[in-house]
Amino acid sequence: MSFVRVERRFQGPERSGNGGYVAGLVGTALAARLDDSHVPKVTLRMPPPLQQELELAATAEGARLTHGDVLVAEGAPFDSDFLADATIDPVAPEEARAAEAAYRGLHNHPFPTCFVCGPANQGGLRLQPGPIGAGRTACTWRPAADLGTDGLVDELFLWAALDCPGGWTIDLDGRPSVLGQLTACIDARPQVGEECIALGRYLGEDGRKTYTASTLYDADGRVLARAKHTWITVDPAAFN
């Protein structure tokens, strides 16, 4: 058992934590206890509170993040075959950089303070996933030095970076959504300062839920991480 805080730098909407970052807190704690046949599936149960002491408990059977008696998020082992088709075909860095110019969040972002992709978060990852054809996004990411230890990016921030490239395959202008569930696998950690490529892919929707996938590559074209997401349509005003 340990205690964690989601500092304001790591927010998503104005008054709650970024979904990918919070899922990473739970997912990395659980992943350390799993064998290769399982990956963490993390479900967010409420908007994660900012700047509050949260209790994180993890065993091989699962993980729970709580605020007092309230469940914030929980993780469960899931069959790793679930991510077998999550890997998105890579694109050249030049194509990913070109896509950033069409990133819709620069001008009409439902949550501009988002740690991963918010233009108003100066301490964020600053990802700008732009479209590269129907249902796909791409962007570059050069992790800052404070995101790693021993020269490598911490797994927690790889979970975060897997978040929004999937989200921006949705029409977030017309269908504002927040992360409800993230299932991820970290295959390798890149060097801090290394240019990486982040990709997203739309998978489908059902009512208020939208399903997407994302993949991170390093500068040599090696898969760093893969994920699948479930997004929930919301009213952004509820978070402001």
UniProtKB/TrEMBL annotation:
It comes from the Bacteria. InterPro entries: HotDog_dom_sf (IPR029069). This is Thioesterase family protein. It comes from Kribbella solani.
